[in-house]
Write a structure and sequence with these properties.
The protein is an alpha/beta fold. Helices cover 37% and strands 25% of the residues. Helix 2 packs parallel to helix 6 and helix 3 packs parallel to helix 4. It is globular, with a radius of gyration of 16 Å.
């Protein structure tokens, strides 16, 4: 995240893991309801062969969200993980997100700190919702992960993810929380099963296996992700989450 982007957002410390995140300046908000949307993207070394497709996906997803009638009701955050976590940017209004900002945004390498990234994403969503709630804004949340493997190298354990997610779902700060895990390029059935087990055991709402990462796969993921975020945004104020979409 550039110095200019950091200056446009406020920095906050999260209660778990010593993590930090950046959130929007509340003075810039004009709507009354918001969806806190986070993409959690695996950029471990094993994603190298399709890193360009992942970057294309990021750009096209921002383009789709910016074109949505719900763009003024979305706060969008992008978190990358390999060995370490990298907040590309915190919760921003879509009008502050431009496709060109994501050029060369993918820095593949390292291991797969999935648990650390998951806790960070969940805790930041709750924290941002708490800030919104304190200013009388209604909010819900959606987190979508794209990964090609299971955790390797996190400081936190799987039960920390389960605890954070359980707390988020029960929180009165968020009207609802939708969570979707997308597996990409998982040739090993054992890896897929472990990822499915993780999804079930920590309570993630939905798991999808996208298969081999090709341009056609990227476009399918793009349609699913952008529509899921927009659908969750449409549901804010209804008292519940949006209906899960079919991949």
């Amino acid at each position: 995240m550039s110095d200019q982007e950091k200056s446009d957002l406020e920095q906050f410390l999260l209660p778990v893991g010593g993590f930090q995140y950046h959130g929007v300046d509340m003075a810039n908000l004009m709507a009354t309801e918001f969806t806190c949307a986070t993409l959690v993207l695996d950029e471990s070394g094993s994603t190298h062969s399709f890193r360009n497709l992942m970057e294309d996906f990021v750009k096209e997803n921002v383009k789709a969200l910016r074109a949505s009638p719900r763009k003024d009701n979305l706060l969008y955050r992008q978190l990358h993980f390999g060995t370490n976590l990298r907040e590309l940017h915190g919760f921003k209004l879509l009008e502050q997100c431009n496709e060109a900002d994501y050029n060369n945004c993918y820095k593949d390498g390292g291991s797969t700190a999935l648990y650390d990234a998951s806790v960070n994403a969940i805790e930041a969503t709750v924290a941002e919702a708490q800030r919104l709630n304190s200013q009388q804004f209604v909010s819900n949340g959606i987190i979508i992960w794209l990964t090609d493997g299971c955790d390797y190298g996190s400081a936190l354990k799987q039960n920390s993810v389960a605890q954070s997610l359980s707390k988020a779902i029960a929180s009165e700060e968020l009207e609802s929380m939708l969570t979707i895990m997308i597996g990409v390029n998982m040739g090993d059935s054992g890896v897929k099963q472990k990822l499915q087990d993780f999804v079930t055991e920590v309570g993630i709402s939905q798991f999808e296996d996208a298969g081999t990462m090709t341009e056609a796969t990227m476009k399918k993921i793009l349609g699913f992700v952008s529509k899921s975020i927009i659908s969750q945004s449409k549901s804010v104020g209804s008292g519940g989450p949006s209906k899960s979409l079919t991949f």
